[in-house]
Amino acid sequence: VYDVIKLWGTTTEDKISEALCHKFSQEEIRRAVAEIVSFSETGFFKDFHPSALRYHKPFAAIRRDLNTRLEQVVLNITEACNLRCGYCVYSGRYLHKRSHSSRSMPWSIARKAVDYLLSHSQDRKKIAVGFYGGEPLLRFDLIRKTVQYLKKTAGEKRVRFNFTTNGTLITDAIIDFLAENDIDVLISLDGPKDINDRYRRFRNGQGSYDRIINNLEKILTRNEAYYRRRISFNMIMAPPYKPLKIESFIRDHEHLFQNARVTTGGIDAQGTTYFDQFSPKDRTDREFRILEKRML
Fold it and tell me: CA-to-CA distance for 264 and 291, rounded, in angstroms?
């Protein structure tokens, strides 16, 4: 993309392909051009220089907030994951995105991050720490150590913890720790077995649905009060879209979703040709319109 941008606007797309064919394949050049065109259509790459920038606060107030009112840090504790979800931006199918790796955060960095949060939140009574991955529970040891450290050093501040997980690595010991520390957990589950397992699979190709459902039942049985209070769900909508089937799934599993917050998200189709395999019919939003009319 960066090589194409250097030539963008100075010549034709055919000339760009000729100039870069020794360095990239025609498919790579085509994808780069398509990505730049997409960004251009949404307002990027314009020859516009603002004369002033407006903020809702004076810079002095912003600087004060950054120094004394920091509210949360999110720790990217690992780039490893035990799943290989088809739509994941870290799957290796996306241009200019990292892929899964074994890199993880050492305790020394995590401690510096939370110390920074503490030293820059003097005017906050409540602060939060999020854990991100990869799959955060692959580093449950670091989550536990960070939580224990902050509970000792946060003084009178109220500290909340949260993370998103694929839900496959939850054990009784983890459940007890999460409940004891009242940690907010967002579990990724895309719907019924056939929809979830289309994309959310283990490295060997096996679907993750059965493991997730079993672990949800385990949490619910072991500590229902915690489950109702702190477990929420995220569902990614990906082609072929079946929102009506997902709606039925939630309704048929009321005991799991009762009073739970369920958020939905879409795929990122920029920088990948992975979703080109689906027909226009698979990528239609017809069922979304039906669902919208029903809700109205």
Answer: 14
